[in-house]
Amino acid sequence: MAQQLPRLVIAPGKDATMRYATRLAAPDPFLLLDDGKRRHVLVSRLEYGLARKILAKSPKHKVVLFDPYYDAVKRELAKRGEKGKVRRRHVLALIAAMYLREKKIRKVVMPPNAWAAHVETLREHGIHVELGTKRFYPERAVKTARELKEIIAVGRATVAALDCCMKILRSSRPNAKGELVYRGARVTSESLKRAARHVLLERECEAPELILSHGLQTRFPHELGSGAIKAGEPVLFDFFAKSMTSGYWFDMSRTVVVGKPSNEYRRLWRAVKEAQDAALRKIRPGTRCGALNQAIDDVFKKRRYATTDEEGFLHSAGHGLGLEIHEAPTVGNGSKDVLKAGMVITIEPGLYYKKIGGARLENTLFVTKNGYRDLTRYPRRMTP
Question: What is the domain partition of the chain in residue ranges?
Fold first, then answer.
């Protein structure tokens, strides 16, 4: 298996694989060689002191200054008359090749998102490179106590941002056009997003994209939303926020109506909640993830909500979550992944119709030995 080979990563610290394996959030690319016994972290002088400080108590990490290798690469290029012809991005691969030869390693596996320039350069210098699967470190799917703590912290910030928006909706009143007004100003998708991002920023979290759609915009699962919000129409919040310090994510969705929803919409929303409950009841170690999707499908079929290419239940039941917003395990139709204690997943059923609008409810959950712990401590109700 390719994953049994020594693992090589060339990426900045914002890369999820690099962040997981080194805990070093360096902005510039650096190198990781995981030979199965130790993780060799090769960094420049800029990051050397910090890396040693972060990893000082970790026996499985070895911090290496790559500047001597960089100087050797430059001398070698100068001898061959190639100085200036090789871009800096290739130099990191040349440093890796030199270090690998020193360690008598001739075969490595790299992540599937490795730069082609790095792969080609290594191969040109006698290193056999294989590309691994998306799950480069499959053990990432089971979270440590430290990781769970980081996810919970982002969750608190995300809930606070959503609650801020809900309070604005609760205090709003419709004007003559039916548009919601708060403190003399119209309530819009944009104004609510600004309020949410302010709360997140205060808690050192960010949300590059927030879904805050309303009315018939909600019929599109990934419509970001815009414009004035009116009484009586659905408002769909999908808040996925990331810690600016730890790099961990959190994800949650709620759909509400300010005022009185139509009976048709009320039935749709209740079906979504019933579907989420059906999936939640199945969460325990040993459950095949595809069964969670099937539980949702069964409820929607029972309630006669059909799915086509454009309407109905248009996405998977959920996803794993951690240093990436979508990571293992796969929680979708036909998934053969099996739940294990320590995994963090989301469950997010939704229904979307052109003439009614859409509704989605999403919770982030921690799989325990006997079931699950709901990390999304926020009510599921149709009113704000």
Answer: 2-136, 141-374
**Tens of pLDDT along 107-118?**
999 999 999 999
Q: 2-136 and 141-374: same fold?
A: no
Mean pLDDT of 296-301: 98
Residue 128 clears pLDDT 50, i.e. is over it: yes
Reported confidence tier of residue 84, pLDDT bands at 50, 70, 90? low
| Nearest of 285, 305, 283, 306 to residue 293 by alpha carbon | 283
Asked: is 2-136 a CATH 3.40.350.10 domain? The reply is: yes
Dihedral of the alpha carbons of 181, 185, 188, 190, in degrees to the nearest 10: -150
Superfamily in which the 141-374 domain is placed by CATH: Creatinase/methionine aminopeptidase superfamily (3.90.230.10)
According to the model, what pLDDT value does residue 1 have? 38
